[in-house]
Amino acid sequence: MSPYLRVLRHRDFRLLFLGQAASMVGDRVVVVALALFITQRTGSPADLGLVLGAQALPLVALLLFGGVWADRLPRHRIMIATDVTRAVLHGVLALLILTGAVRFWQLVVIEALFGAAQAFFQPAYTGLLPQTVPESQIQDARALTESVANVAFLIGPVLATALVLGIGAGEAFAFDAATFVVSALLLARVHPRERRGSAGAASARRGSVAHELRAGWREVRSRAWVWVTIAVFTGAVLCVYSQWYSLAPMIARDLYGSAGVFGLLEALAGGGAVVGAVVALRWRPARPLRAGLLLVPAWPVQAAAFALGAPLTLVSVFAFATGFGFSLMMIWWETALARHIPPQALSRVSAWDWMGSLALLPLGYLLAGTLAAAFGARTVLGIGSAIGLVVLMLALVPRSTRELGDGTQAVADSGRVGTEPVQPSSSRAVSV
Questions:
Q1: In 3-state terms, what secondary structure has residue 135?
Q2: Which of 128, 317, 351, 415 has the fewest CB atoms within 10 Å distance of its CB?
Q3: pLDDT tens digits for range 117-137
Q4: How far is Cα 323 from Cα 329, in angstroms, rounded to an integer?
Q5: Annotated domain spans of the chain
Q6: Phi/psi at 397 (5° precision)
Q7: What is 10-190+208-413's CATH superfamily?
């Protein structure tokens, strides 16, 4: 636990960490609560896909602009504004549900606005975290943050299932709104540091939005390990992620006897993710990105086993392995971005990462219900998982992905804690 205790000594990170801990639990509650609420209300995969698509479409459409503004403005201020916005949105939704006045179109509109706010939050958060700790402790901070995200992944589905099936969906959304308020109050006290290379580049960040978008894209395309990984996850999200969240609650109800099985599997994945984040404190492979990509295929394997009606015990094991692998992959990926991307471009690269990975998510949500109606939910999820497994393996094709180091030597060579050597983009161009 010593790395956790060491990184928590930094006041700004501690405030960021506590605020996001609360918000992450609320987020995980809402993901499952939405699926269960719509399953109860209409029982239609198409309706669930429409709501999830409504949230994902503005998220994808606005992420790049969120990245530009996160590299221009104080990132913690952007996060405060988005926290307040999301608190209001889900507070209103909770009130509508509790009073029995909610209509399906209102749910669609609220979730679309929620996705738009998320588009500005995510790039700002990715860029802010390295500003709250010394460079040498970025992976520790990522591991601790991922641990809490994974605890949320563990308890969120359980709490959501208990609230929606036991009390009501309104309380689940009210809880999420309250967590955003807590996060905003803590973020208001954060005073992030300037990273080396970011302060001197302030004038360069004042070009047109189009110019800054192109500059961010140049940082992405000059590194095959970045753009290939993003492209691969674009396909995997379309084939596996969107199908899972659109179809799994209904498959769980019809095949395993209860939609609550979906919440159980999500919770088990959260348990695996917690273990993965703890392991990340000690396990620092020489080639972290390669190691992470070798663990992630447990994800489509789990979805395929579920679609095939495998014994619940076996599916549960795969769910745990999925959380474990994803946890490590995310920690190593975010740390690689923070250590290998210039600080003044980190939010824009993060925005390209999120936008690229989620680009086909709205389409996936919308297609899931339509394809399930024509071919059956289990068939669609099974075939999608098989395609996703093949696609994920393509991420290991670039040599730069397989050989990318952890970046710690570059930090040590800088000679100063809290700084990062920034090299010209051209010197880090890589080939497939």
A1: helix
A2: 415
A3: 988 998 888 888 888 888 778
A4: 10
A5: 10-190+208-413
A6: -65, -45
A7: MFS general substrate transporter like domains (1.20.1250.20)
